[in-house]
Every structure is written in structure tokens, then in C-alpha cells.
Records
---
Amino acid sequence: MTAERDALRATAAEFVRREVAPHLDGWEDAGSVPRALHAKAARQGLLGVSFPEAVGGEGGDLLDSVALQEAMFEAGASSGLMAALFTGGIALPHLAASGDADLVDRFVRPTLAGATIGALAITEPGGGSDVAGLRTTAVRDGGEYVVNGTKTFITSGVRADFVTTAVRTGGPAGPGGGHAGISLLVVEKGTPGFTVDRALGKMGWHCSDTAELSFVDARVPVANLVGAENSGFYQIAEQFVVERIALAVHAYGIAARSLALTAAYCRDRETFGRPLVANQVVRHKLVEMHRQVEVARTYTREVARRHVLHTRGQGENVVAEACLAKQTACDAATHVCHEAVQLHGGAGYLHGTEVERHYRDARILPIGGGATEVLTDLAARLLGYTP
């Protein structure tokens, strides 16, 4: 931690207490976060913390983003809220890294200023984590690409003004198509043939809108191509490390918040004439919850630190470690949020109770950004634990 990060944490926590916490239950029931919140967060310098100043960001790095997220969770932000508010964190990095001034001016700067909302569309029906097998095609026709296909489980897809979309520009579509023919293309809202087919209801992340998108002969300017044609897989893989670390922070962030709420509840709640915390079994549960949170937080922070060094040319890549950090934190969230509801008893099962929300939100984390099973197999290959 540094003095600057301490100040960032204080700003982020105060933002949640003032602008988020009083309204979060209503946003959960409404199924979305208001667009005005993006502008408010931008004015506080929160949206672009880890983006370079040259593209409209605050000039920080991944460690600054981790500090910000931790503080927001500690103050009561939900995982769904963070997914909705910071979708730019997955929609913009490829554009910012491309060095294309036109893409930066049209999409990155307005989004970091809170004026527009971006989404990232990779997952397809039946495709899941198989990025190399995607079926959405983009065929070059003069100065445009003609896009056809379907995307699903797209975070902020309902509200998005543009979608950074993974498309196949080479090789056969579907399983076995390979990674070499994938590109990234920015598809803007209002493009003829591009529609939001439906908003998807979910177990958790209620205030984070999720959509199924379709493309039927949607014509997209070649100027909206991100980086070189057929380089999309490598761009996606590079940013997956940051996304998985961010999801790990989500996991131990809501776990830490659930632990704090539960410890306070166990001190205040009396049964059989004494507080819950007077029972040894309860104290031991709280200690185990604490242990898992601390292990996940410490390991994830270390992986984030090593990733920052790698981006500066000072260390090895941490693709495998990011997978393991995500799994460690997700396991902690699953355990801690389960015990939090259990120790709250009937109150923990009521809709609108904060631990109930975290319990539901935790379930998506081992799935999103790469399912645990897929990432474990990836880590096994990277670590050399294969035949």
C-alpha cells in the first residue's frame, strides 16, 4: 500500500456509502444500474484508475484497481454492482492497447468519462469457454465486415452503446476452427442487423444486466477492427489474466464483507441467554472463514503484483497463477458466504439481506471468466502436469 492507494481506497469507500449503498436494493430489484452512476464514478476518478492517462485514464496499474475494488466491497458494494459499473474493464483494454487513436477517441475516452457503456462479447450458445471454437463470422466486403452469429451471457449487453465482439475472420467456424482466425470488432448500438434478443434473468448479479445478442448481416466498418485481423485470440488471452485476477478480488471481497457482517451479527444475536459468538463452534467457524479470506487475499495480491512486474518486462507471465488465484478466492467465497447465511439463520435466507445477496452472487464466480474445471486443466498444462 502507498499513500496514494490509501487515498484511493478512502474515495472509493465513500463513493459506495454515498452513491451506492442507499440504492442497491432498488437496483437489484430493477435489474440494472442507472447510467448516471457511471458519470458519477468517472467524476471521482474511479472508472479509469488502471488505464493510461494517454487514453483518458488515471495512469494507475492493476494494484491500484485491486485497492479500489477491495475498498468498495468493504463498504458494501455487491459483485453484481461492480460487474455492471466496471464492464469497461473488459470492454476497453484491447482498444486501449491497440494504439488506434480513432478507436480510443470514439470508444475508450467516452466510456472512461462515464458518457458511454461498453461490453465484451465472446461467449456463444453451446460454446462456453471454447474461445477458439466460436462461430460468429465476419466476412470482409469492401470497407465493411458482414457479421453473423449469436452471443450470450454478455455482461451489460442490454445497456451497452458498443460491444467489443470476438468474430471469426479466418478458418472454419465452430469446434476445431482454431485460434488463428479470430479477430476483435467493435459493433455499435443501432447497427442494422445487430439486436439485443433478450435480457437474461439470473440467480445472482441481479443489478448487472446480462443479454443475448444476435448479428444478422450486420455491416461494421473495417475501421472498427481492433488490432490486426486474426490477432484477436492473443488479445483476448492477454486480458484474461487481468479479468481472472479481478474476479478473484470479487470473490474474496464479498467473502471478507460477509465475514465482517457475520462476526458483528454473532456478537449481537443472543440465543439461550448468550451471544452466538459465545459458542465454540461459532467461533471456530469465524476463524476458518477468516483464514480462507486471508489466504485468498494474500495470494491474489501477490499474483497481481507479479503480473504488474511482468507487464514491465521484469518477470514471468502469471497465466497459471491467475487461474489458481481465481480458484482459491472462489473456493473461499463459496465457503464463507455459505457459512455467513448459516450463522445468520432465518435472517440470512431472507431476500434483501446482504449475506443472502453475496451467497447468490458468489455462485457465478467459479463459472465466469473461465470455469474452474477449464482453468485447472489450463494450469496443469502450463505447469507441466500433463503426459
---
Amino acid sequence: MKFISTTPNEERVSFKTAVLNGLTQNGALYFPEEIPQLPSSFFENIENLSDHEIAFTALQPYVQENLSDADLKWIIEDAINFPTPVKHIREATYVLELFHGPTESFKDVGARFMSRCLSKFEKSNDKEITILVATSGDTGSAVASGFYDVEGVNVKILFPKDKVSPYQERQMTSLGKNIKAIEVDGTFDDCQRMVKQAFNDHKLRKQVELTSANSINLARLLPQMIYYFLAYKQIKKELKDKSLVVSIPSGNLGNASAGILAKHMGLPIKRFIAAHNANDTFTDYLKTGEYKSKPSVLTFSNAMDVGNPSNYERLAYLYGRNLGAMSAHISAASITDEETVQEMKDTIQETGYLLDPHGAVGKLALERSLKEDELGIFVETAHPNKFQDIIVKAVPDHVLTETSLDGFHKLSMDNDYQQLRDILLS
């Protein structure tokens, strides 16, 4: 298996090289040269396989050049050591809970998988690796936890000032050691832009061994496919004569891209819904066929506040920029903050289930789209505890736990690439 650029060039690299590089030489994203096909017998027997056996089968074709079967099994067992349950909410609606990891975010599996890959790769690397990542909330928490105290790896996390929850900021800034959180006076898109500038700064990269842990990095993206295999394993007996639809709260489109990859490997999911908040760049693209990035706006579902989603490039490449082909497999919806809070309020009153704001966006987008012959799963990407200031808008008697940020480790900087460059070189 080789990986190539979503913007064609001469690169054709191994999994290890793609992970260490982060971005391609021409500043694009890596994508599998071909998508492996799993046999129908795998899906017919999936309910009899362990979660780790399923993960190994799905990931092994992508990594076999650089990770032995024994190494891959160890990484999977160490990275995926918590449940990802599917629960029934009501009628044809189910939820996939991905917040049972150490930072209560769906990004835990990807961050833990990548950190363990790098710990294997670092042994043959004579330079320390610097992880540079931009976050709108949960990525920073998961990366900080997943890479904490990993030998030979330094982590720099850029997050927008006053645009992540106190709970998320605490998780990013409380560790110290090899983890450095950097508060940027700007938006997530500003953070992401500076990360891309650093990766395209060839003079800098001669001095700093740089890679990323956003979903732009394959080692973060590929393990997220596993969620949808495990969801299918749990829901299979409930499907009967219905088709499966999955709604994913979406910002940078990494989780949606991972699900689409799983579908192209043969996973029997009929279609996906990319559920957005007011940051509706991808929604507009599917309506008009014209991709126009926008400045991000602050919403109650802050982890999805992305105006220029990087992984759009992977979806566009996969479908040959054919809008009709893409629309056959993925749709999009945009949900307002007012609708989000109302959905949280209605759901707890009707079912007793407490949604986080991102899950509320996913649920509402799903139920607006679900057809009679379909069964739907929406994804809960983070634990409600991380967004208590929003929870109390829907559930006023929710018990708040104060989050203090005193004494935590962080740097602050302006929206200025030169400042970031100086930090990386220091």
C-alpha cells in the first residue's frame, strides 16, 4: 500500500513516510493509492469477531509495509481499550457513543493510535519529532493525553483564545512535560492556517522534524474507520430489511472521511450525513457544486467551528470532484444554535438521554433525513460534561462543576506566523 497526494505530484510513499511528513510536498493531503476491499464473509461473520480482530482486519492493509502484525495488534490493543457502545434512543434512532476514552472525546482512538505508531517509528529516527496541531477543542485534549510523556516526541497545540470550553482548555493545558498548549488570539481557521504555513516552510522543516496530529494525518484518520465497523457489528441484528444511515457531527470532515473510506472498503452503510452547525461551507458545496471557504463563526458546538475543512480535499479526490457521485453517498445539513438547544431539551424530556451540543446537531440532522426503510445512528463525539455552560441552557437544573484554569501550562501568542515559527525553533 502506497499513499499519494490529493493534488497530483510524483509522491508515492509508505504509511510511515506519510505519517512523519503530515502533509505532502505540495501542501496537500495523503490518500491511499487504492482502497482495499474486504470480503463479504467478513461482514457476514462480523458479530462473531472481537473488536480488536475487526480493527486489525480493517487497518492491516494500510500499514503492513511498516508495522508487523504483532506491532499492529499491540497498538490496537493499547489504543482501543474502552467501549464504543451503540444505544437505542427511540424508534429507528440509535446513538454511537464515542466519549468513553480518557479525554471523553471520539478523537482518543486516533490520537492514541498515532502516538503508538510514532513510538515505534521513533526508534529508527535519530531526531526528536515535533507534533504541531491546531484544535477547535477536542483534538487538543486527545492529542495532549495520547502523546503525554511519549519519548522523543514534543507536542505544540494551537487553540483559539476564548473559543474552547474551560473543560477542554483544562485538559490541554494541565499536563506539562512534552505538551505545550499555545493560545492564539484568533479563530481555529487562523490556527490551522499557521500550521499549514509551518508545514510548507521548507527552511523551518530542515531544522525541525515536524508532523501533525490533526485528521490531516493518516495515523489520526485511518483508525477512526473502526468506529463504523464496530457500530455495524452492534446494529446488524436490528437492521432486518432496513438500510443503515449514519449522521456525523462534522467540522474538519475527518470523521466523515473515515466513515466514507470504511464504506468504500465494503462496509454496508447506505449513506452518511455530515451534520454541521452555522459553519456550513460543505453544506453549501453540496447545494451549489462550488466550494467556497468562509471565516469560521463561534457556535455552541465549538469543536465544529471550521470554515475551511481540510478533509474536503480527500472527499473531492475520492469522488473525482464529481458532485453527483459524492451526493449519492453523503449529504449535509446545518443546524442553528437555537435548534441545537431545543433538541437537547426535547430529547432529555422525551427519552431521558442527555445530548452534548455536537450530538444534538447530529441527531436532529439524522431525524430530519431518515426515511421509512432506513435505520439511523448519530454519533455522540464528546461527553456532555465538556460543555456544561451549554447544557444548562437546555437543562437548567444540571449540576455544574467549576473548572479552574489557575496554574496550568500554556503560552499565548498573536495571530502571527513568525511568533509560531520562533516558538518551534526555540
